Amino acid sequence: MVVPGNANSKHDELIVFLIRRKDALTSDRRVCMTTLTTTPLAQLLDRLFEEAEATSPATSPAVAGLSSEEQARLMRSKTDYRAFYGRLKDFPLAVSRETGTLLYMLARSCGARTIVEFGTSFAISTLHLAAALRDNGGGRLITSEFEPSKVARARDNLATGGLIDLVEIREGDALQTLRVDLPETIDLVLLDGAKALYPEILSLLESRLRSGAFIVADNADHSPDYLARVRSPAGGYMSTPFGEDVELSMRIG
Ligand SMILES: C[S@@+](CC[C@H](N)C(=O)[O-])C[C@H]1O[C@@H](n2cnc3c(N)ncnc32)[C@H](O)[C@@H]1O
């Protein structure tokens, strides 16, 4: 029943309710901060991405002398990858900002506690993944890199970002370093080292992937064998290209 005398007060109550709700939403947004978007990590990542964007390996003497065919061959080689990445040791070769954000979101949404990364470089992707572990309540991230100077830079960046306690950097060829002492189950994998090795690295980790584990493979178009495997209906994965650079796969069963 509508009582005409009460109409204004109902209207006022509604306005007060809406103002309070807006205040609550605004303050919720203020308190919904993440490790990724707060000090010190947010500033560190801004600086690292700016530096990465300012340096292009394509124009550097390190690879400028190579024909595009030779570069493509090296990108796909299962034997010459060490020399190729040695030429690129001063470059971050990082995932894009979008892929970094995707890594953080995937690791958060699956509640990841155990993550393995192939290809650390300066640790830009590692920082995103470790931030998700921190916000999930902790965990273990094993990452692998064979260039000693990159390992040192990665360690510095992880210390500056306040995340070094969550990360174990294994120095050496991942074909060896990811062969031993892995977590019982793995929640998420990032493949971002030598593209030709994606199938071999997946084989090292596969038996430990939990059902529903995500595998993010950057620039997997350089690894046709890998794509064929994760896209095969009998392969035990659900898989789709995602954005410009990523093949996103999920372990089934
Ligand atoms: C594309 S970069 C990784 C970028 C890094 N994920 C990021 O987003 O910041 C690839 C790195 O993997 C390293 N790498 C390539 N093959 C490797 C292997 N077999 N074992 C260990 N490290 C490897 C290279 O030295 C290089 O630093």
Describe this structure as you would to a colleague:
By secondary structure, the chain is α/β, with parallel strands linked by helices. It has a domain at 88-251: Rossmann fold (3-Layer(aba) Sandwich), CATH 3.40.50. The protein is built from 11 helices and 7 strands. A 7-stranded mixed beta sheet has the order 3-2-1-4-5-7-6, with helices on both faces. The termini are far apart. S-adenosylmethionine binds at residues 81, 85, 92-95, 119, 121-125, 144-147, 150, 173-175, 192-194, 197. The site of S-adenosylmethionine has 24 residues, from helix 5, helix 7, strand 2 and helix 9.
Essential attributes:
253 residues, alpha/beta, seven-stranded mixed sheet, 11 helices, globular, binds S-adenosylmethionine
What's the CATH C level of the domain at 88-251?
Alpha Beta
Strand order of the largest sheet: 3-2-1-4-5-7-6
As a percent range, the share of strand residues is 15-25%
CATH topology-level fold name of the domain at 88-251: Rossmann fold
Give the name of the CATH superfamily of the domain at 88-251: Vaccinia Virus protein VP39
DSSP helix fraction = 40-55%
Inertia-based shape: globular
Bound molecules: S-adenosylmethionine
Q: Work out the helix count.
A: 11
> Which whole number gives the mean pLDDT?
91
Q: Topology of this protein?
A:
Blueprint lengths: L6 H25 L9 H14 L6 H4 L3 H8 L5 H7 L9 H13 L4 E5 L5 H13 L3 E6 L2 H13 L6 E5 L2 H4 L8 E6 L6 H8 L3 E10 L5 H8 L5 E6 L3 E6 L2
Parallel strand pairs: 1-2, 1-4, 2-3, 4-5
Antiparallel strand pairs: 5-7, 6-7
S-adenosylmethionine binds next to α5, α7, β2 and α9.
